[in-house]
Amino acid sequence: MTSGKDHEKFSVHLKAYLSVFQLLLGIGLLTLTLYVGWRYHRLTHQAGENELPAYSYKYHISMITGQQQSAYWRSIYEAAREEAAKKGAYVELMDEQLVDRLSVCELLDMAYYSHTDGVLLYPEDDDAVRRRIDKLVAAGIPVVTMERDAAGTKRTGFVGENEYFLGREFGRRILAMDTGGRHSISVLAPSKTFGSGNQFWFQSGIASAIGTEDYVLDIQLVAESDGLTNAEAVINQLLCRTESMPNLVICLDQSTTELAYQIIKDRGLGKHIDILGSCLSDIIKEGIRDGGIQAAVTIDPDSLGQRAAHELIRYLEHHLANYFTDAGLCTITRQNLEQYEEGARYENHSE
C-alpha cells in the first residue's frame, strides 16, 4: 500500500512540475506577444514610409536576397518598395532587422509559414532552395526570381538577364578595350549563385563575342558563409601566379569588384591587370573614374526592382506573369558615368 508520505511527496512533485510548466507557458506567451508587437511596429512604421495607413495594404510581399549589405541590392529593394506602394502593396526586406544572419533557405521557410502573398527572390544555386521555391508555388505563393533564374523550378517569373547575354556583353567590352596580344582572363564568380549551368552559358556568351580572339579563360568561385567570403584569398592567389597571372579580371558581384580594385591598386598592378566589374557603388565609381576599373556591366537596379515588383503584383491581381522579363544591361564607363549618375540608362541595343 502507498503511504501518506508517498502521497504527500507525489503532491509536492506534481505542484513543482505544474509551476515549471506555467512558467514556461508564460515565457512562451510573452515571447509571442513581443514578436507580434515587433511585427506590428515594423508594418505600421514601413506603411508610414509608403504613405499608407497601417494594415491598409492589399498584398504583403517578402523580398529575399541574402545581400543585405549591398548598396546595389538596397537600391533594388527601394525601387521595388516604391513600385509596390503604387498598387497598395507592402514589400518587406526579410532578415533586415534580425540579429542573427539567416540563410536563404531559412528565410524562404519564414515566408512560407508567415503566409506571405508573394516572394521576390535572388536565388542561390542549391537544390534545397529549388525545393522551397516549388513548395511556395504549390501553396499558392508566387515566386519571381531576380537577376539570376532558378532553372528547373516552378517559379512564377524571372526578371533579369540570362548568363549568355551577360557573357556576350563582357566579351564585347574585351574587344572594345583593344589591348592586343593574348588575353588571360580570370572570372571571379559567387559560388552560391553561379552554378555549372550559369558558368557554361556565361563562357558561351564570351566566346560568341570574342570569336577567334586569342584568349584563355578560367572561372574562380568565391565562397561565402555567414556574410564572409574568401575573395581576398582567391585574388591574392591569382596575383601570385607569376607565369600565368591574368591580364584581365572579370568580377560578377559588387563586393568582389570593390576588393579586386583595391588590392590591384594597392599592389601597383593597375598597368598590368585590367578589371571589368559588376554593379555600381561609390568605390566602383571611383575605380571607373581613375581607370582602375575599365567598365561595370550591370542591370539598372531601379529597373530591376520596379519590373520585378510589377510582375509579381500583376500575377497576384490577374494570375498572369511573363516567364522572362528582360531588365536590360547597362555598361558604365568613364565616358558615360556622369550621364548615368544624372539618371540616364545605357542599355545595349546592338545585335
Annotation keywords:
Rossmann fold; disordered C terminus; 11 helices; 6-stranded parallel β-sheet; alpha/beta; globular
What does it look like?
This protein is α/β, with parallel strands linked by helices and 351 residues long. The protein has 2 domains: 59-155 and 301-327, Response regulator (Rossmann fold, 3-Layer(aba) Sandwich); 163-299, Response regulator (Rossmann fold). The protein has 11 helices and 14 strands. The chain has helices spanning 4-49, 71-86, 104-113, 127-138, 163-177, 196-210, 231-239, 254-266, 282-290, 301-318, 337-341; strands at 59-64, 89-93, 118-121, 143-147, 157-160, 183-190, 215-222, 224-225, 228-229, 248-251, 274-277, 295-299, 324-326, 329-332. The strands form 3 sheets. It has a 6-stranded parallel beta sheet, with helices on both faces. Strand 8 (224-225) and strand 9 (228-229) form a beta hairpin. Helix 7 crosses helix 8. The longest helix has 46 residues, at 4-49. It starts with a helix and ends in a 10-residue tail after the last helix.
End-to-end span in angstroms? Answer: 95 Å
Number of helices: 11
Task: Return the CATH class of the largest domain.
Answer: Alpha Beta
The CATH homologous superfamily of the largest domain is named Response regulator
The radius of gyration computed from the alpha-carbon positions, rounded to a whole number of angstroms, is 25 Å
CATH topology of the largest domain: Rossmann fold
Order of helices and strands: HEHEHEHEEHEHEEEHEHEHEHEEH
Structural class, by secondary structure, is alpha/beta
Kindly report the average pLDDT value: 83
Largest sheet: 6 strands, parallel
Q: What percentage of amino acids are in beta strands?
A: 15-25%
Shape: globular
